[in-house]
Amino acid sequence: MANNTKIILxxxxxxxxxxxxxxxxxxxxxxxxxxxxxxxxxxxDHYERLQAIHNRMISLIGQHKPVSCAIEAPFFGKxxxxxxxxxxxxxxxxxxxxxxxxSVSEYSPKKVKQSITGNGNANKEQxxxxxxxILKFSEQPEYLDATDALAVAVCHHFQETSxxxxxxxxxxxxxxxxxxxxxxxxx
Length: 187
Prior knowledge:
By secondary structure, this protein is α/β, with parallel strands linked by helices. It has one domain (6-183): Ribonuclease H-like superfamily/Ribonuclease H (Nucleotidyltransferase, domain 5). Helices cover 50% and strands 20% of the residues. It has helices at 46-64, 80-99, 109-117, 124-135, 144-161, 163-170, 173-179, and strands at residues 6-12, 17-26, 29-39, 68-72, 103-107. A 5-stranded mixed sheet has the order 3-2-1-4-5. Strand 1 and strand 2 (17-26) form a beta hairpin. Helix 4 (124-135) packs across helix 5 (144-161). The mean pLDDT is 89.
């Protein structure tokens, strides 16, 4: 990869299936590096599955050297126990990325779908089909958790490069205060 290439790791957390996707960004060109899933045995101890998530995260980060990690926020369901387990899986993925020095951003499922398809209520197949157009690939993964993770990475890129994100970074309070020190009241 070129020196001005930025790699983004996207994660769709799960306690049985965790999707992951990596993209390389050079300017406005997006290229898929890898997508896949970590499929865990549901009969294994929950803590062993959390260890497997940590190990896969460390392996992906070591192999591909991403600069940031984008993760999908859990969808709030009615089963409290499932939500607790999903939150733990997400926490392990976030902690693994942060331990490796990556910046981490979280996006709601609706935000990811909106960013990729223009429709926050799109289904997994619609997201996958739009990603095929954006990233120019033809394969259909066995598990759509992989394309969901890829969508999170692409969403992160779109959010970082949107005119609104750029404007808010360049026109924040810190920038304003630097440009207008005379407007600061001192005690």
